[in-house]
Amino acid sequence: MFLNKKTPLVAVDISSNSITVAQLDTINNKPKLMNLGAMPLEEGSVVRGVIENPSNVISALRLLLKTEKIKCRHAITSVCDPIIRKIEVPMVPEKEFPEKIYELAEQYIPFDLKKMLIDYKIIELAKKKKNEESLSKNYFIGEAMSEILLFAISKEIVNDRLDILTEAGLNGVIVDIDIFASINALKLNKILPETGLVALLDLTNPASRINVLSNGNILFFKGAPVATDFQSDSDVPRPNPLAPLFQKIKKNNRIRSLNEDSILQEGSSTPQLLDEEIAEKVFIDEVLEKMEAIIALIDQNGSEKIDHIFLLGDGALIPNLGSQLASHFSVNVVRVDSFKSISVNSKYFNLKTLNRLGPLLTTVVGLAARRFDYN
Fold it and tell me: Are strands 83-90 and 116-124 parallel, antiparallel or unpaired?
């Protein structure tokens, strides 16, 4: 089948504690939610983006596709934490670009390139000028350089994701990057300011990441993204707020998890609640510390101030996190609503639950908005 921008795609987001699928369509120039389903994964199935227990993930995805009655076979998924660098490339003929990029990648990627997938995106091509003697010919300015985003990630990580899709009966046609999917979702919902600095706090249990954007794109200092990763220092894991809500995404459609009795509990004991409160306090302190380090780095480089913080991931649901960030840094803090500008049929979807789950569904919504729009 020839794929084009009209080809339906199903988005598949595989995170450390859950797997989510979604489909969007465009009706009257407005995105509409067609399908959305989620399933908790058993602990240890996915660790730091690496699929450690493929059989559990495959079973969850198969069950999810069956439950949601998704007929579409072409899928888009994403990976996290690739190496991203902004580099300058001497202008060469277009057909020589891939070879030149690969040649330069050796300077920026501290791994065996034979084990890495290399890709790139042109930010700005080198400028041309007219030859004074013949206006019909273009010549590149001497030492003209093109700005390029260089991406690199382990082939094993990407192939493992594609294998999961294949085993579940899907055909993986696009592999995106989590951060770009999240940015896509924010732009789709008209949340992201077009100018200024903003911080995206993807607070996903157990690993979190802070990215800084400038004018809607990743901010770079000395060719590297302004970003930081961190894991909670607390020995008490944060509870997964998705777990008791999975079966409520769709009305009258209870999704059975693979190990539901151990994941969905009617109540929590007093000691457990106390442990969770301690874990949340420790986590908030960690977030404040990491944000202070990011802001100090920005100040050192003479950049403008961050004026918005967007909260994504399950950590966004922690009470008082937003207010403490706003108070501590004197910025606007927004808990992301992934469905703000998306048409949702209240007959089929629980709007209250979708609003609550918004920060956790940013990646899958951003993926679902993508289309097969390139050769």
Answer: unpaired
- At 170, list the tokens: 């899907």
Element (H, E) at 226: none
What is the number of structural domains in the chain? 2
Q: What is the DSSP string of 257-323?
A: PTTHHHH--S---HHHHHHHHHHHHHHHHHHHHHHHHHHHHHHHTTPPPEEEEEEESGGGGSTTHHH
Give me the phi and psi of 68, to 5 degrees please.
Answer: -85, -5
Backbone angles phi, psi at 346, to 5 degrees: -70, -15
> Using omega within 30 degrees of 0 as the cis cutoff, is the peptide bond preceding 206 cis?
yes
Q: What is the C-alpha end-to-end distance of the chain, expressed in Å?
A: 14
The helix or strand, by DSSP H or E, that contains position 361, with its residue range, turns out to be: none
- Our CA angle for 256, 259, 265, nearest 5°, is 85
Domain identity same for 104 and 191: no
Beta bridge partners of 86: 149
Residue 41 belongs to some domain of the structure: yes
The series of mean pLDDT values per 10 residues for the chain, 375 residues long, is 78 92 91 92 88 95 93 95 91 82 90 93 67 47 76 96 97 95 95 94 87 94 93 57 57 44 39 65 91 95 90 91 96 95 91 89 96 64
3 occurs within a structural domain = no
Q: How many CA atoms lie within 13 A of 354 on its CB side?
A: 23
